[in-house]
């Protein structure tokens, strides 16, 4: 039996032209990605994205615009499943209500969940800023979209 792991992520850009990054520790691995996570059975992609932003960022989002979907094989770093990731550009529908740091992996010591958020200037955003190939491809898609917009 082949397992698929569908992941849904949101790229949130603020009015200072910065993008929100999530630094996490998961099973001893330190990763940087965009906010989001795994699709649950019976859930739609947008529903998942909204739930993940509420869970991770205590924030409601609106107007998701599809940016990129994985178009190559990627095996999970954590199990034997195949990763399928879907990326959306998102707009805030409420205030972002998490601690923001200037430093990577600046975890709150009192939190059980090892996750921290930071803004990165879009002009400085590079595929090397994120961990997994799917996020690197999403950055490339974002840069291409921004280039076409100007």
TrEMBL record:
Which keywords does this Swiss-Prot/TrEMBL entry list? Hydrolase
A single GO molecular function term of this UniProt record: hydrolase activity
List, alphabetically, the InterPro entries matched.
NUDIX_hydrolase-like_dom_sf (IPR015797), NUDIX_hydrolase_CS (IPR020084), NUDIX_hydrolase_dom (IPR000086)
In terms of Gene3D superfamilies, this protein maps to:
Nucleoside Triphosphate Pyrophosphohydrolase (3.90.79.10)
Q: Which cofactors does this protein require?
A: Mg(2+)
Show where the Nudix hydrolase domain sits: 1-146
Q: Which domain of life is it from?
A: Bacteria
PROSITE patterns in UniProt: NUDIX (PS51462), NUDIX_BOX (PS00893)
Q: Which PANTHER family match?
A: GDP-MANNOSE MANNOSYL HYDROLASE, MUTT_NUDIX FAMILY PROTEIN
Q: What is this protein called?
A: NUDIX domain-containing protein
Tell me which species this is from.
Arcticibacter tournemirensis
């Amino acid at each position: 039996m082949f397992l698929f792991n569908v992941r849904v992520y949101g790229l949130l850009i603020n009015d200072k032209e910065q993008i929100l990054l999530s630094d996490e520790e998961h099973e001893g691995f330190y990763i940087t990605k965009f906010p989001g996570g795994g699709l649950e059975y019976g859930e739609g992609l947008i529903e998942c994205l909204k739930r993940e932003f509420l869970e991770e960022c205590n924030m409601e989002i609106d107007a998701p615009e599809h940016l990129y979907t994985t178009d190559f094989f990627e095996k999970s770093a954590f199990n034997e499943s195949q990763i399928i990731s879907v990326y959306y550009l998102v707009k805030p529908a409420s205030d972002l209500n998490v601690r923001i740091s200037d430093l990577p992996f600046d975890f709150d010591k009192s939190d059980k969940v090892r996750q921290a958020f930071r803004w990165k200037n879009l002009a400085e955003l590079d595929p090397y800023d994120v961990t997994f190939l799917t996020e690197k491809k999403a950055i490339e898609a974002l840069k291409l979209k921004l280039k076409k917009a100007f």
